Amino acid sequence: MTRPDPSAAALPLRTRIGQVNQRLKGWEAVRWVDGAPRVTDVLRREVDRWGGLGAVYGVLRADPWSAVHWGNGVPPERSAEAYAAVQDHVTAYGDGIPVLFVEEAPHGLMALGGTTLPVNLALGAGMDADLTEELAAAVAAEARARGTHVALVSGLDVLRDPRWGRAEECFSEDPALAAALVAATVRGMQGTTSASDSIDAAHVAVVAKHLAGQGAGIGGRNGSGAPVGRRELGEIHLRPAHAAARVGVAGFMAAYNDVDGVPCSANEELLTGTIRERWGWDGVVMADGTAIDRLRDSAPDPARSAALALRAGVDLSLWDEAFTHLGTAIERGLVDEAVLDRAVGRVLGLKRRLGLLGAVGGDAPEDPAPVPARDVVALAGRAARQAVVVVDDDGVLPLRPGQTLAVVGPNADDLDAQLGDYTPPRPTPDPAASTVLTALAARFGADRVRHATGSRLRGPLDGPTGGSGALDEVRAAAGGADVCVAVLGGTSRRTYEDEFADNGAVAGPAPDTTNGEGVDLSSVALPEAQLDVVRAARSAGVPVVAVVLDGRPRALTALRELVDALVVVPFPGPSGGEAVAAALCDGTASGRLPATFPAADGVLPVAHDERMETARGYVDVDVLRRLPLGTALLPDVALRLRGAEPATVPAAGLADGAALRLVVDVTNAGTVPRSLSVPLYGRRHEPGIRPRRRQLLAVRRATVPAGGTAAVPFDLGLDELGSWASGEPVAAPVTLSVWCTPEPDPPSDARTVRVTDQNGATPWER
Amino acid sequence: MTRPDPSAAALPLRTRIGQVNQRLKGWEAVRWVDGAPRVTDVLRREVDRWGGLGAVYGVLRADPWSAVHWGNGVPPERSAEAYAAVQDHVTAYGDGIPVLFVEEAPHGLMALGGTTLPVNLALGAGMDADLTEELAAAVAAEARARGTHVALVSGLDVLRDPRWGRAEECFSEDPALAAALVAATVRGMQGTTSASDSIDAAHVAVVAKHLAGQGAGIGGRNGSGAPVGRRELGEIHLRPAHAAARVGVAGFMAAYNDVDGVPCSANEELLTGTIRERWGWDGVVMADGTAIDRLRDSAPDPARSAALALRAGVDLSLWDEAFTHLGTAIERGLVDEAVLDRAVGRVLGLKRRLGLLGAVGGDAPEDPAPVPARDVVALAGRAARQAVVVVDDDGVLPLRPGQTLAVVGPNADDLDAQLGDYTPPRPTPDPAASTVLTALAARFGADRVRHATGSRLRGPLDGPTGGSGALDEVRAAAGGADVCVAVLGGTSRRTYEDEFADNGAVAGPAPDTTNGEGVDLSSVALPEAQLDVVRAARSAGVPVVAVVLDGRPRALTALRELVDALVVVPFPGPSGGEAVAAALCDGTASGRLPATFPAADGVLPVAHDERMETARGYVDVDVLRRLPLGTALLPDVALRLRGAEPATVPAAGLADGAALRLVVDVTNAGTVPRSLSVPLYGRRHEPGIRPRRRQLLAVRRATVPAGGTAAVPFDLGLDELGSWASGEPVAAPVTLSVWCTPEPDPPSDARTVRVTDQNGATPWER
Fold first, then answer.
1. Is residue A603 assigned to a domain?
2. ipTM score of the complex?
3. What is the tally of structural domains in chain B?
4. In terms of domains, do A581 and A728 share one?
5. Which residues contact A606 (CB under 8 A, 6 or more apart)?
6. What would the mean pLDDT of A115-134 be, rounded to a whole number?
7. Do the chains contact at B225 and A610, CB–CB below 8 Å?
8. How far is B327 from chain A (nearest CA, A)?
9. A613/B224 Cβ within 8 A
10. Considering only CB atoms, which chain A residues are within 8 Å of B218?
11. In terms of domains, do B393 and B494 share one?
């Protein structure tokens, strides 16, 4: 079959403008009526207006904002029919160019029946690039089988401030970890390793979001300015994007925030200078939802907003009105028609890459395979297991068979609180799901598990007996139990009653929602109401294990003083209850904190890789970085970086692709095999630059047999040993201290790594 | 008399190195022994080592760090003798080149008997450039009369995070206000308006500190990194320095922090590229205390640290060991000798400018006039009056004659808490001093004023009855009084028992010190102990007026809910008690908040001039900027910006020095004349840039007769209407909204100002 493959210039102006506009909310373009898909007048009007469409967002989207649920949405197994109804209409009434189907998939496809994965921050705790790639491939297969072409995927944002409600969408505060996992995600979802690879019918194109610096927003406020400098941008915020570009990511989504005053959607230096001219990447840049309309403070009218964005390098809008003014903008001479054609060419290029245009390449299967949900669920369960981080354990863990448990706290039996934002409604029944309560009850027997909620997330429970009655119930449940497990934290729950902003962020009163887009918190301390639950349990005289299920780093100082054991789990997804139960019972939890947990409210922002400073810290806080990235209690396991002599690699070699091998020996003195992540930390000594205290150079998962040792090799190349000051790795002579143990500063036995010049020297020693 | 005027090149290498090293702590160079000054071996060794000295720091310094007090320091009236002893030794045993005498004078000369002024943040509340200039001139006369040549003066740092202990040393969070006041300070102290003006015998040279971006340190931690971009640096942090350079400031002190990774003392782009090559300034750059030694993380050895700093543009060290390695650095080829000569030339140039070299110009008077303390004290009192900001007043103020008062709280009768950091010990007796308690007792009669302390600043009072007993005393004092005045806040008190860092910042346990260098706080909420005092007073059933004497913006949300009236006073100096009493009694307080007071801990950083953002703020905080810069309750006074039509000025005219006149009409409906500051706010509408919500364009003091009106003209020129993105003002077509009322966003009657291109157009309208 041959499909049309037009060049941009051959299309009428209005069709070209239609190719770069993605105005519709897809669930309004097609409705499920009487068991069949019907395209709506909304779609008809839009197709008539442009003579075709570039992309349609969210035909399958189901969540409270879209108001799509199991009662009115597209049945999962009939997704392809819904898409086909739209595609048939677009191609029949437009210029014959197929439309792109775009969906959200930040942690699984956000559609009815879509498998929900642990959030990115949970994958960050697992630090497992291979599993991340497998998960991504499974999600892509699920999505493409339904007919989706393009997945919008979080992963570029670096978690620099936990007040930000979208912290859960970040992999880490560390750019190297975020880069490794977003690259794995792109490889898995697209099945590509470079920009020249086409995307086959088992995969989807990825638009990675957000570009750039959204994690640096002032005060962690969503979309606030990121007044960062070039080096900070290059070393921290651009690294994930660079990694994604290198494996051929199809697109980037421009962020809401400004970088040093210039909004990302109007940022030519970023969207053209950096990613295209310097990196040589040539995919599609999509604006974030209504971001071009939001240029209204930066342009006097919509045509100017559209021209600004197009000139900067935005190729495709999302829900914007302004981008429809491109015709006027061209007429008024605000932007050249050639710039429009450049954008149209990129959109068509993506369709070509997906096999939607021309004679070659694949396409969405005519007869999609059944949704392969089972495999994804198993993989998601593995990822949830890896996300469990044990921080403290005063001999209370593992729980022992036959113990009687009290399982208390607001998140003990709340599936929603495990899921994260951007999640479709769960099916009923929901056999894959477990809460900590149900999972522990299944393991210990319902008669051995007592339950009390104790409080809401941010305040006492309502009800006739009020908060104190609920705390009495906690006390009663804990009394006589051997151990109390208090399940605390936050939730990104959205309800069909919430109010939303025009971009889907929660905007209205959501009294007990603490996380997700639009839910930024000034205080990340665990709320007093939750501490009261722990105090009530404590007063019963039993050991308390706190399990914090949350989407952001929390200040846990007060909690740690109250409990015997502390377990932290970034939103682990539907099977998170079982993951936690397993970790509590088998003592092999392997997650590490994917970001620094602050010692207190008021110390933010704080990260393990801030530059050296001469300050003593705050006089009213003990230790600033008490729980840095990488924190994990891993009993019986020891890591040792092999070798003592300085290791040397020429800078010129690095530039040519050489690598330096370092080996970490991991010993397991325990009686069961262990799987864990092995981090390699480094400090760069570079004349004239204040070094970051510690950076993650690389991390690998390893498996070590009981009583055995595993040698974990690291091949450190340009990415790990080069400078990222400009947003791409550059080889230069430098000296590093390298270690694998948890110290915030290089320990005395840190290995020296010398990246040398042509004379075998480094500037640090000369 | 003719003094030597050598060129740098004519001096031996070691002498040149001696000219750029300022290693000594001056109080260790000369001691007051048996009623006469004696130079010490410390000085002798140093002079022998170099064959002369460039500068000596702190011969007169007196404070806990130097351990100099009234019992062992230089008597004020004999300062010239102490200096002369050093100068005679240096010139006799060196190459005959006089040494520079350098002293701290951030708010008055930090020497025994030096007049202590309100801190800079208090001057920021007054917003009175003329008075600031007068004060500076008075301090300079006092210092030069003693023999001081160079004053180290805070004023460049912009208060972007109130957690920073040095917030008190900033004039404001707003760069235009800081720039106006630092320029006034330099004009007043130096008696210059440009770099070509010499500094006469009634004035001192100013080294303004710190350059640059220290106010942007992460988390408000002292000396932490400032990872800001060029536009943020140019628009916010460089403006005060640019203003100081323009009026010919003699020197800048390079800051501890890095800017986007490059330590200021090693920052060639800043210290040479920006301030010298672009601004055309050619004064002396002094390193901050031990800052070159602190380059140890950025250079492999001291010689490299020295070379880095010298190459970057540092001309003079402070207490450093590393800069003495310059000979080695030159020998090893790490830096050219010509670069050293450049620095030596600048140090000699400053001596020449001060009249210390050659046949022309003045010198330190041979027979110094008596210290003119009286005038300074009166001026300082006026400044303290202007610093009093009334935030809330529910009809409780003014206090009425005949009322009985309870004056309570930890700062009610604590002179130290009014003074700020960098303060010499007070004389005994201290007739110029007053606390709120003593000043109110003087006005109302001691029998009408009851007193109780109630708490310490950060916790309950010690003592046999503990905190609750002290609170009972508050309750008792308030019971039966007509009004309770609770004096709260913070203190920068240092004691002779404190521990200090090598640069004089407080380092050891200072349990009740809350402010000053080295005392950064994670929580800027008013401590619970102080709220308890207010609650105790409140429980007695009387109206409560809270007076917050502090050096930093505080989160006052909880306090405001407890009190009837709220008065905020940045550390007002020794006469601050009387200033507060007057303001409480006469109802004409005129101060405005010089920085945004945050609604809560956890919202930081926050400023009135952050860029527009789309976020809703935090879900757990009501209004982010409830008390923005400029906040003041000014009863009976109304401000109106004259004119409704757009006002136009050509960009080309601005570049040539033209200005646009706008007039604010101030009406005073009251029965007494009023003096107040009149702010002009603006928002720039510039295509492609996200505007700052509101900026202070300019501010002027005005006096308005009772029942009358005053027309306050503003001539807006390049500084006010140009772009500061590059760190210096540039004229470009742009549209602004301008207003003078307190709204955070342009009100509907904001005046449009058009800066036009050659066609009479602005890009915002096209």
1. no
2. 0.96
3. 3
4. no
5. A596, A598, A624, A625, B218, B219
6. 98
7. yes
8. 17
9. yes
10. 605-606, 610, 613
11. yes
